[in-house]
Amino acid sequence: MSRFLFCLFLLFPVLATASNPLLRATSFTLDNGLTVVLYPDHRAQQVHTELWYRVGALDETLGKGGLAHAFEHLMFRGTKRWPGDGYTRQVRALGGSTNAWTSADFTWYVNTVPSRSLDAVLEMEADRMRNLTIDEKTMRTELQVILEERRMRIDNNAQQLAIEQLQHKMYGKHRWADGVIGSEADLQGLTIGDFRGFYDRWYHPNNATLVIAGDVDPATVKASIQRYFGAIKATTLAQREPLPQPIAEVDRKQVLKASAPNSMVMLSWRLPAELPGTDRAALRVLAEILNGGAREQGLRELSAGQWGHYSDLGRDVPVFTYGSQLRRGKKWSALQSDMLRQIRVYQGDSLYAEDVEIARKKLPVHKLFSYDGLNDAAAELGLYASLGRSVADEVAALQQLSEVSRADVIRVAEHYLTDDTLAVVVVDAQSMDN
After folding, report:
1. Rounded Cα gap, residues 95 and 111, in angstroms
2. Residue 65 and residue 74: Cα distance in Å, rounded?
3. Euclidean distance between CA atoms 273 and 121, whole angstroms
């Protein structure tokens, strides 16, 4: 470990609390319900905006999978004032960039432009909030684009296909199983009425959070936000439908034969919907330990790389995932056995205290350093505001990481990573020439 990182680890308790830069953010709400978060940072003459809508893939009805993501595409297809791809062309003409993302719970639209161009971006963003052009021809064109995106990103990508199959094994016939992009059948069944109804239901100021990070003067930007967004009327929002608990498939193992450079094994455990904060922190530490590589000699010889992942933000059922790529010439059945053996090591006295110490200090340091970029800082602020949480909650979560003990990691591994909640998907790599 470098001396620099060692010093940061020693300073971790201070970094996790008083020095969290996101504490500089301020927020207010317009009369129409639009939440605004401002994060001044004058190191460069640029601004980054993110407009978050509280709608995502979990708000789709069964059979309409992919609608939220497909609508995200339509948001770049024009209004009467900026028809066609006018929005994207105008942002680029200003010297900026634009993009968007859809998750299970949210859809958000991002722009990075010189600070002098902030008003122009706010005006265009406010315009498409309620003045989007939605027509049959544009919808069909974008659906074809998305179908091709699905073929490239999932159908022809062994790892993404494995993730999709894991979701089906764990969630059965439930919206959680469909993923964000949706199935080909669902996408082909979407209608112009689906898109117009989705827009009218969800795209309103009182269902949105605007984050502006960068070279801004709070007093000036407040006036601009009021000028462009203040006249947009709020609406009575539809309640997000309660999500029933998904029922996992009985057979929770699948082997996929797919063209891929390496075979792969993915293990996922479905966790309870509500977890104590101490357990969430310990699971994050355990995932980071797995990211650090295999400890067992046999696993090191079989694995070409491994990773752990744990997430509990949003309405998704919490999941813990452990994946590994197989070295060429080895057997995936042996890799699976050694991965499960590695988990059993973490459920007992063979867990190294050093691994826990490194992971619990490394996580928050990397998180805090990520805030040095406007994009990551704005995304974190947008996420927490959309969840109804505060920066103080994030500070508390980072502080909890510092309190995770070796015994905590052993306890959550024993309690949650059990055979009765495990789903397994194997990618059995076939020649990429076939």
Report:
1. 11
2. 16
3. 39
Banded model confidence at residue 6, pLDDT cuts 50, 70, 90: very low
Considering the domain architecture, whether residues 323 and 415 belong to the same structural domain is answered as yes
How many CA atoms does the CB half-sphere of 99 hold within 13 Å?
Answer: 7
CA dist 339 and 305 (Å) reads 12
Tell whether the model's pLDDT for residue 256 goes beyond 90: no
Highest mean pLDDT among 34-38, 255-259, 330-334: 34-38
Range of the domain at 407: 253-430
Residue 29 has pLDDT above 60, yes or no: yes
**Joined tokens for residue 296:** 């067992």
* pLDDT computed for residue 4 by the predictor: 44
- Domain's final residue, options 196, 229, 262: 229
CATH of the domain at 183: 3.30.830.10
Task: At 361, list the tokens.
Answer: 């200090």
Question: On the CB side of 346, how many CA atoms lie within 13 Å of its CA?
Answer: 30
What is the pLDDT, as a whole number, of residue 174? Answer: 67
**20 neighbors 364 (Cβ within 8 angstroms):** no
Is residue 104 within 8 A of residue 56, CB to CB? The reply is yes
Reading phi first (left if > 0) and then psi (alpha if -120 to 50, else beta), residue 329 is in left
Mean pLDDT value of segment 234-253:
74
Q: Do both 89 and 181 map to the same domain?
A: yes
| Same structural domain, 179 and 285 | no
Q: What is the DSSP string of 64-111?
A: -TTHHHHHHHHTTSBBSSSBTTHHHHHHHHTT-EEEEEE-SS-EEEEE
Average pLDDT (39-46) is: 96
Which residue in 17, 24, 22, 23 sits closest to 402, CA to CA? Answer: 17
pLDDT at 210 exceeding the cut of 90: yes
| pLDDT (0 to 100) of residue 250 | 55
Report if residue 237 sits inside a domain. no
127 and 181 co-located in one domain: yes
Q: Is residue 412 in some structural domain?
A: yes
Measured over the CA atoms of residue 266, residue 158, residue 190 and residue 141, the dihedral's sign is positive
Which string of b and e fits 391-422 if b means at least 16 CB within 10 Å? beebbebbbbbbebebebbbebbeebbeeebb
**For residues 11-27, b (16+ Cβ closer than 10 Å) or e, as one string?**
ebeebbeeebebeebeb
Q: How confident is the model at residue 434 (pLDDT cuts 50, 70, 90)?
A: low
Q: Are residues 220 and 360 in the same domain?
A: no
The answer on pLDDT for 245 being more than 80 is: no
Question: Average pLDDT, whole number, for the chain?
Answer: 89
Count of the separate structural domains present in the chain: 2
